From TrEMBL:
Gene3D superfamilies: Leucine Dehydrogenase, chain A, domain 1, NAD(P)-binding Rossmann-like Domain. The keyword Ribosomal protein does not apply. GO terms for biological process: L-glutamate catabolic process. This is Glutamate dehydrogenase. The record marks D145 as: Important for catalysis. It comes from the Bacteria.
Amino acid sequence: MGELNPFLMAQRQFDEVADQLGLDEGVRAILRFPLREFHFRIPVRMDDGSVRVFDGFRVQHNDARGPAKGGIRWAANETLDTVRALATWMTWKCAVADIPLGGGKGGVVVDPSTLSDGEKERLCRGWVQQMWKNIGPRMDVPAPDVGTNPQMMAWMMDEYSKLKGEYVPGVITGKPLGAGGSLGRTEATGFGVIYTVREAMKHLGIDPKGTKAAIQGFGNVAQYAAIGFIEILGGTVVCVSCWDRHDRKAYTYTKDDGIDPKFLQSITDQYGTIDKAKAQAAGYRIEDANAWLSKEVDVLIPAAIEGVITGETVEAISPKVKIIAEGANGPTTPEADQVLKKRGTFVIPDFLCNAGGVTCSYFEQVQNDMNFYWHRDEVLKRLDEKLTAAFHAVLDTAVAKKVYMRNAAYMVAIGRVVEAMKLRGWV
């Protein structure tokens, strides 16, 4: 992957801030690499009677501030380096949101759309059978991510509970409501993106009403970011871009007077593929994959995959764009960051912008511990308060130290992790 290796990218971002903070070599040595990595093989009996063996991963980057936390991704192109990078970013994400958790991430090399429900369940249970001694509410708490969903988390929680011999809902978050899940979790990440966009607009003196956004992705984060941009801010979303699993390529679905995200949700399958024929019949223009990037909008929200705004593609971004809100993990490469810095584009970095999901996961764990569950409005109110406070801690650092928002977010996050490591006597 060369320069787009996500783990090398995560390390480069860390190194830049470590230099600015003057971190000593011992601290750097701990934080540049994960503390623990697991790579295992999961044999699964397929529906046709054959046995297929899948590669599984779990990486625990740092747990100085609390149990490791992070999703499990199922993707055909999953690699250990992707999981390492995401685990590293989770450490910073939990720290910048100021929740008492560390960073972890899991993965399985598989295209989930090729499996039946029974095969998915057996693979979920197989993953837990390999990892159950090294996860738990006080150790490492997985969650859904790309390619996984609440039902899969329920199977995993059930398998862990069987192996432990007791009901342990707090081992995994992102569960369905009937199995220890939290209200507000579905919309938490996308709405969290919009809470940070709202605060950025206040800072920049932009009236959100009448603003326009272009979004990459139409999975859970992008769907609720689109709904939130319209319903919370009163703005317009002109397009979303998403992967079509039938054509094996991405398209941008555009409506200049504004898309209807709830209509698009109704014609989107569980893997995030929009029904092209129904979209066209409803008046949507279908453009190439990267058309979202060059739209003349106020806000760009990359909410799909890493490495999409690069040294080359950044040139396509309209000078009209005032804010880039990173709903995805690692969507902007260091080369693109240099260009955006020069332009003065306000970037809300990924591990601040998309921290709504992990914050709500933390709330779910708290509710599991108490065995007492909050109303949706209470969850979203607490989420808004947490992310607003996190945004201003980063913004205040950026202004005081005259640094780029990404560097400020790293400074806040790394500072909190290093403080915990020192208090615990690690360094």
